[in-house]
Design goal:
With 328 residues, the protein is an alpha/beta fold. It has helices spanning 18-36, 59-70, 91-101, 115-125, 140-154, 177-185, 205-218, 228-232, 252-260, 269-272, 295-298, 305-324; strands at 48-53, 74-78, 104-109, 130-135, 161-166, 192-196, 221-225, 237-241, 280-281. Helices cover 41% and strands 14% of the residues. It has a five-stranded parallel sheet. It binds phosphoric acid mono(formamide)ester.
């Protein structure tokens, strides 16, 4: 078991070994039981995490802030308008200074073509761990919570049919980072992953290629279909969710016109009947109800969305406990 985590950045799980991911999940399960039993677990006593949110968040912000409080530490809830980066302060200077004050820097920056580069630059200069709260390419904390939830529901994940489907939404063009993190991670656990998406909403080819290699080494599978019904057939897990067409066009008008053609890509009860009878419905949330999914599905017996959201708390606590604390 790998146990040396202190100071390790979490930008993408692709840079963490399977052994390291398993240790994080074991730690998260341990912390979940302690939380359930009202057992104090102040493992990060007097430690400080700086959260920098360039975008809105409900789950990520509150799971981290509640999580570090439960671990005995404190989080600063920062947005660019509260910081000198809004006047152009460099990533280097921000990283160097925050490293002198605290124990972890956590950042969400989903701007396409910018977010991951910004996190990498902060990580280059920070002497404390940088935790990715979602960027344009990766959302490792979501993928970890998804993995933990699937393990709770199914136990061994080898051979599980998991469908990650594009879905229509009007709320906003969601980042690619959730489906990309899922296709990179799930095949490493031997899952048979199917991506269903219209051709105008592809995932990034270079990361798809990496995911294919992960499938080979992890004894999993990765397939692509362009029809939502085909994706749902026989699935044990369905994860229908919108993502923007950034990898096809950066022209917002063209993306909007493409989106309008696929209003029928909704997860409804008819489609759920195509899947395995014991299928579970997952969604990172926020869901665009009535567009991505109907109420009877997300509120129905197959839905595990609140268990999945709860695991955001336990997994971020596992990550912080080991990277910001842990043994030197
Ligand atoms: N799933 C997720 O990251 O939710 P938030 O955007 O609310 O943080």
């Amino acid at each position: 078991m790998q146990t040396l985590f202190r100071g390790k950045h979490l930008i993408t799980l692709q840079e963490w070994t399977r052994e390291e991911i398993d240790t994080i999940l074991d730690t998260s399960r341990h912390l979940k039981l302690m939380f359930a039993n009202n057992q104090p677990h102040r493992w990060l006593q007097d430690k400080t995490a700086f959260m920098m949110f360039f975008e809105q968040s409900t789950r990520t912000r509150n799971s981290l802030e509640a999580g570090i409080t439960q671990l005995g530490g404190h989080a600063h809830d920062l947005t660019p308008d509260k910081m000198q980066l809004s006047h152009g302060e460099s990533a280097k200077d921000t990283a160097m200074v925050l490293s002198r004050f605290g124990h972890g820097i956590a950042i969400r920056n989903c701007f396409y073509g910018i977010g991951n580069k910004y996190l990498r630059e902060v990580a280059q200069w920070a002497s404390i761990p940088v935790i990715n709260l979602q960027d344009d390419l990766y959302h490792p904390l979501q993928a970890l919570a998804d993995l933990m939830t699937m393990q709770e529901k199914f136990g061994n994940l080898k051979g599980l049919n998991v469908t990650i489907s594009w879905a229509y939404a009007t709320s906003h063009a969601k980042p690619l980072s959730v489906p990309l993190s899922q296709i990179l991670l799930f095949p490493r656990y031997g899952m048979n992953v199917t991506v269903a998406a219209p051709k105008e909403f592809p995932l990034l080819p270079e990361l798809v290629e990496t995911a294919r290699q992960n499938a080979q080494t992890g004894d999993g599978k990765l397939n692509f279909v362009d029809n939502m019904d085909d994706g749902f057939r026989g699935a044990h897990v369905v994860i229908p969710k919108n993502w923007g067409g950034f990898a096809y066009t950066e022209d917002k008008g063209e993306m909007a016109a493409n989106l309008a053609r696929y209003k029928s890509w909704i997860c409804d009860e008819q489609r759920m009947k195509l899947a395995d009878p014991k299928v579970i419905y997952m969604h990172a949330l926020p869901a665009d109800r009535g567009n991505e999914v109907t109420d009877p599905v997300i509120d129905g017996p197959h839905s595990v969305v609140y268990d999945e959201a709860e695991n955001r708390l336990h997994t971020v606590k596992g990550v912080m406990a080991l990277t910001m604390g842990g043994r030197p």
